[in-house]
Design a protein that fits this description.
The chain is an alpha/beta fold. The protein is built from eleven helices and ten strands. Strands 1, 2, 3, 4, 5, 6, 7, 8, 9 and 10 form a ten-stranded mixed beta sheet that branches. Helix 2 links the parallel strand 1 and strand 2. Helix 2 runs antiparallel to helix 10, helix 4 packs parallel to helix 11 and helix 6 crosses helix 11. It is globular. It comes from Aquincola agrisoli.
Amino acid sequence: MKKFLVGGALAAVSAAVWAQYPSKPITIVVPFTAGGPTDKVGRDLAEALRKPLGATVIIENVGGAGGTLGAAKVAKAAPDGYTLLLHHIGMATSPSLYRSLPYKTLDDFEYLGLVNEVPMTLIGRPTLPANTYPELVKWLEANKGKVNLANAGLGAASHLCGLLFQSTVKIDMTTVPYKGTAPAMNDLLGGQVDIMCDQTTNTSGQIEAGKVKAFAVTTTQRLKPAALAKLPTLDESGLKGFNVTIWHGLYAPKGTPAATLEKINTALRAALKDADFIKREEALGAVIVTDNRVGGAEHKKFVEAEIEKWSPVIKAAGQYAD
């Protein structure tokens, strides 16, 4: 009888603790340095989550190793709902890019929901002879083996988009990796490299200012922002089915209680309807996710499909990290 009472008391205390969640600040780990596009999304999301969660939400930047250091930290964190992870497409590409990961992508996290999708743009140096996508293709074919394709480093959005573009058009290019988007963009503006495929969060300003040649967007539908609305899609330009977006999702350590996950997901759904959050994301060219991938189960299915999509592309390129 005493054992039953003790067990019942512990269960009651446990239930009370989870019912009080959150009772202290929540940390969202962004696995990249401050100031980048994922950090921007994270800070916008943190602001939008504060009201529906009723708690302070803090961003912690844990950069390094293509986002895997920050992801590993969350995988090993206490499963209490106070340490979360905001990660981009690297969640699905790291299993193929890295020979060894300190976590299991599909096993060591609770999937909370997708946040947004950021389109990509194919751009070129301002002195490039081509002005349209058909002209670009002709120029690429005439300069096989001489074209320099810039990216922000192994596993970066620009690296992944560049890999898929090369494999789709079947034109060999020289990949030039940089330590971040800023130096890659600087060399593109200066004419040291020829083309780059990067997120609208990084390219919209340069396109609007006319500082780069803009050829196409990577979504299957044209984009709404004024600076990008006139750009054709690669799909309509002849690369049927070409569709690359840099999505962001929210995760918790494996074993986080279901009741806590439900509270976070409810808050996430409210945040994605927040007018200020929507305005900030749309200004970046991002599209807020509103379909069933906002739920944990569909979010995980989506990541599984992305792993299957990118694995053969990355393996064919033979570009790995230790």
